[in-house]
UniProtKB/TrEMBL annotation, chain A:
The keyword Cell membrane applies. This is Amino acid ABC transporter permease. The lineage of its organism: Bacteria, Bacillati, Bacillota, Bacilli, Bacillales. One of its GO terms (cellular component) is ATP-binding cassette (ABC) transporter complex. GO terms for molecular function: transmembrane transporter activity.
TrEMBL record, chain B:
The lineage of its organism: Bacteria, Bacillati, Bacillota, Bacilli, Bacillales. Belongs to the ABC transporter superfamily. CDD domains: ABC_HisP_GlnQ. InterPro entries: AAA+_ATPase, ABC_ATPase_HisP-typ, ABC_transporter-like_ATP-bd, ABC_transporter-like_CS, MetN_ABC_transporter-like, P-loop_NTPase. GO terms for molecular function: ABC-type amino acid transporter activity; ATP binding; ATP hydrolysis activity. This is Amino acid ABC transporter ATP-binding protein. The keyword ATP-binding applies. Keywords: ATP-binding, Nucleotide-binding, Transport. Residues 8-242 form the ABC transporter domain. PANTHER family: AMINO ACID IMPORT ATP-BINDING PROTEIN, PHOSPHONATES IMPORT ATP-BINDING PROTEIN PHNC. The keyword Nucleus does not apply. Pfam families: ABC_tran.
Amino acid sequence: MTFDWQYIVDVLPHYKTALWLTLKLATIGIAFAIIVGMICSIIQYFKVKVLSQIVQVYLEVARNTPLLIQLFFLYYGLPKIGITLSGELCGIIGLTFLGGSYMAEAFRAGMEAVTKSQIETGKAIGLSNLQLMRYVIIPQAFSYSVPGFGANCIFLLKETSVFSGIAILELTNTTKNLMGIFYKTNEALLMLVVGYLIILLPLTLFLTWLERRVRHAEFGN
Amino acid sequence: MSGQIPILKVKGLTKKYGEKIVLNGIDLEVEKGKVIAILGPSGCGKSTFLRCLNGLEEVQGGDILLDNESLINKSTKWREVRQRIGMVFQSYDLFPNLTVMENILLSPLKVQKRNRSEVEAQALELLERVGLADRANDYPRQLSGGQKQRIAIVRALCINPEIMLFDEVTASLDPEMVREVLDVIAQLAEQGMTMLIVTHEMNFAKLVADEVIFMDKGNIHEQAPAEQFFTNPQTERAQQFLNILQF
């Protein structure tokens, strides 16, 4: 097998652009997913009337349909009723829609792990529900949910490869295009793997660090 | 130190879980500065009784009067009542995400909106009194059970409550640690704090309590001065209970 290093150097700018785009869309999508997830988890935790039922339906739909189908709906479906969104926007919305449900579950599990006695103690010293949330539940829930949260971040980042289905030139789609044009399959796939690793390895390291950093809740009280 | 006016009055307090009656019309008057030990077998309702007193349990009947004001009505602001009736639990439950000092300051600063330097000074003084002034910046995980429980007591005291409720605060501690926690409570008794103490430490109850309440199956079976209760219990059930403890 011959390996064309010169080719890799030639297509490097394409990969650089694709890598940045992947990173950008993933970051924005994950950030919104965290917000959606937090809101949904709080609604679920407090069993807010009506809203919690709506959230439940959303969670089931989002988690039980593939991202690709969600993207098709946004990208090809919505224009039929007169709503046309750019590919990138569809990608971000899709990732938020899917990620929000996963984040919600991770955060909810974290909140439920905060013991009843911690909450009663908080009440017994006079904290309001909001203060209880701010000083007792959220910090501990976050600590409990970091492992799930981290796994979700990595999962969502890799899910951006599905964006290739709606013509976004992120890493996977760029690779497919280059393979289609130049037939340099090995080189292109190597670059694809390296591209994902460049993003994911530091993220994984960061999440491991974060997990260690916020583990206070696991050590008795 | 002990006045004649009851600061806390409980009348016919009834608590049910569904059909099961947990508290069957409890009557009690607590005078200011008095220490009352609540004894009884597990499941007799003594913890539930304490929890009712600061609104952690809903009650189905009867009344609780704090300084002659009823607490059993919809307009009761439990958050304010809880600043007057402090409570310490068996499981200490310091907040693991906060340091000792932050644990203590949380309520005085955020709930009572008091001045930080004033509260800090009070907190340090209280920590000094329980022998833990050097642990102010530690996290709960760095402390032993007895130390955590003493901090939990300081946290409750720093809110300046008029009454303290102790719910089996030594039940999960080993004997040495039990001692250090009980010493703190005995100190409080000397200073004239009004306290209701649920405990299984009979000798401690004998020593510290002015009065003993013996509960079983949701009823108060006997209420007597501590000395009299331990030497000459009147009811058969209480005699039985005390006999079992002597071997």
